[in-house]
Amino acid sequence: MHHDGRVPNLPTTSDVSARMSRQRSRDTGIEVALRRELHRLGLRYRVHRRPVRAVRREADVVFGPAKVAVFVDGCFWHGCPDHGTWPKRNSDFWRTKIESNQARDLNTDKVLAEAGWLAIRVWEHEDPATAAAKIHATVQSRRSPRT
């Protein structure tokens, strides 16, 4: 691991490299489906924004006034306890990469909480309608009452 927390690149097969380069990091199917459900429930939001300027990480969906940041986490990249896999090839590299992603996620959640924000994490395998309903309830509960 580099002194700044980045994991050094290790050689992978050209097959793995090609597959990884095709992975979408924005506007994935689950993100779009979740946003569609949130909109259907009457919520308005911003996408791919940094909730707190000091944190260089973008949330997938941001509700500014309610201070709620939604992150859609991929099962592989974030180590889903139900669907995450640990590759056999370059296993030390991948374990370090995934564990550093998990540590960064915890740090992001902590920094946002210290700034008054709530981070909600949605796994890519979750049903978008169910996730949207939970997010909707949370956003509504954190909105300031109108006077």
From TrEMBL:
It comes from Saccharothrix mutabilis subsp. mutabilis. This is Very short patch repair endonuclease. Belongs to the Vsr family. Transmembrane segments: none annotated. One of its GO terms (molecular function) is endonuclease activity. Residues 1-24 are annotated as: Disordered. The keyword Hydrolase applies. It holds the Pfam family Vsr. It comes from the Bacteria.
